[in-house]
Amino acid sequence: MKTVLRAGMALASVCLLAAPAGAQATGPVIEHIDAQGLRALVTGLGHEITNEAVSEEGQPIVTATTGTMNYLVAGTVCENGQCQGLLTELVFTNTPATLEIANHVNQSYAAIKLVVLDGDNVVFSRYDVLNGGTTLGALSTSVSTLLEIAGTIVQSNGE
């Protein structure tokens, strides 16, 4: 287990250091995100959109693939399609993880949540609040960081 957690912690450090200094400030400040913004976020990362939907609560949801991982981005706290939050989530199936690993990830990475489900399924998620504004670059960095850390932890756990 320590190998899994060390790999994830090392990757988190690398991701933060590897991002260009201006990456988070790229683009205009946005105070809301909508379906168009979600599409721009996913395609800007070079990922393929696999589905789009709107929840009963009016939340735009875009599912996408990196080619190796499937994930979703969803607007939250929405009014008229304009959302003040962004939820990024990915589920790994047939991926055993202990509650000890989940607790360590949840304590070590404040912005990332790991939930262990029945049947060897785990869910990684990250939530971004747009209060006061952010940029699409900052949201892209957030999504990329979650995907990298989750992928590394799961891959290391399988070895």
Give, in order, the helices and strands.
HHEEEEHEEH
Q: Outline, from the CA principal axes?
A: globular
CATH class: Alpha Beta
Question: What does the average pLDDT come to?
Answer: 84
Q: Counting H and I runs of at least 4 residues, what is the number of helices?
A: 4
CATH topology: Yope Regulator, Chain: A
Note the quaternary state here: single chain
Helix and strand composition category: alpha+beta
Query: Which parts are unreliable, with pLDDT below 50 for 5 consecutive residues or more?
Result: 1-24
Sheet with most strands? 6 strands, antiparallel
How many domains would you count in the coordinates? 1
Distance N to C terminus? 10 Å
What would you report as the Rg, rounded to the nearest angstrom?
16 Å
Strand order of the largest sheet: 1-2-3-4-6-5
Characterize the structure shown.
This protein is globular. α1 (2-18) runs antiparallel to α4 (136-158) and α2 (35-44) crosses α4 (136-158). By secondary structure, the chain is an alpha+beta fold. The chain has one domain (2-158): 2-Layer Sandwich (Yope Regulator, Chain: A). It has helices at 2-18, 35-44, 99-108, 136-158; strands at residues 48-54, 60-65, 70-79, 82-92, 112-117, 121-129. Mean pLDDT is 84; it is low at 1-24. The relative contact order is 0.21. Strands 1-2-3-4-6-5 form a 6-stranded antiparallel beta sheet.
Write the topology of this structure.
Blueprint: H1 2-18, H2 35-44, E1 48-54, E2 60-65, E3 70-79, E4 82-92, H3 99-108, E5 112-117, E6 121-129, H4 136-158
Antiparallel strand pairs: 1-2, 2-3, 3-4, 4-6, 5-6
